[in-house]
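Structure (tokenized):
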């Protein structure tokens, strides 16, 4: 039986978006049923073991992934010092829309439904981009998302939305509870990971997060999967 790494195609991708060199990693399993754009407000996080674990979980579930660092390497360096670019939601949103258009036009991905996984300001960018491309974006999952930075776009989003927070991340849970009624989607929920804080630092918590996100995408991109027992859902 072929292994995961024998049954998927992985390559680095470079896009020039308004003069900026945006890098991504594209992984496409055999018979992919959808493509997930991982939208992160970073410049060089694609090879981190935690992020690769999430990618592998999605690929195992029959989902292609485009892990996209929405900042350039140079912008990431400046952000470490000043934070200037990491919270520039307008910049991140413009780039995510361009990445979405690239996926929609790509020969390997053409015809596959598109979804977003967003973190931090990348979650706000996901809502802004989904509001601009409602015909392309079929589902959204966020973790640690700054949805307040995309407040005016929440009501315009119609794709199914899952907001994931740790049980002990009280600030994020309260923020999600405020934002959830403002989201225009008919299907929307908050999922709570037991015992987790804001960072999902333990491998088991990261694994639960990845599996639950994959299940949400599977349900709404036509792959099909049941919700894992033991999760707390608030709708």
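Design, position by position:
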């Amino acid at each position: 039986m072929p292994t995961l790494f024998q049954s998927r195609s992985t390559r680095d991708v470079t896009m020039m978006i308004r003069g900026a060199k945006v890098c991504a990693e594209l992984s496409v399993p055999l018979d992919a049923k959808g493509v997930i754009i991982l939208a992160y407000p970073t410049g060089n996080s694609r090879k981190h073991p935690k992020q690769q674990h999430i990618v592998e979980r999605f690929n195992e579930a029959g989902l292609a992934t485009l892990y996209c660092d929405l900042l350039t390497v140079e912008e990431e360096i400046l952000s470490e010092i000043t934070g200037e670019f990491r919270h520039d939601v307008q910049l991140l949103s413009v780039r995510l829309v361009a990445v979405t258009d690239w996926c929609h036009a790509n020969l390997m991905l053409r015809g596959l439904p598109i979804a977003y996984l967003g973190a931090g300001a990348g979650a706000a960018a996901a809502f802004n981009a989904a509001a601009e491309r409602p015909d392309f974006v079929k589902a959204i999952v966020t973790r640690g998302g700054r949805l307040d930075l995309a407040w005016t776009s929440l009501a315009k989003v119609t794709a199914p939305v899952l907001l994931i927070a740790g049980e002990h991340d009280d600030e994020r849970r309260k923020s999600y509870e405020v934002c959830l009624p403002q989201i225009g989607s008919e299907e929307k929920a908050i999922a709570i990971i037991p015992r987790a804080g804001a960072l999902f630092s333990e491998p088991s918590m990261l694994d639960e997060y990845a599996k639950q996100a994959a299940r949400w995408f599977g349900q709404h991109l036509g792959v099909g999967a049941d919700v894992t027992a033991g999760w707390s859902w608030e709708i």
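Reviewer-requested clarification: Residues 163 and 190 are 5 Å apart (CA to CA). The radius of gyration is 16 Å.
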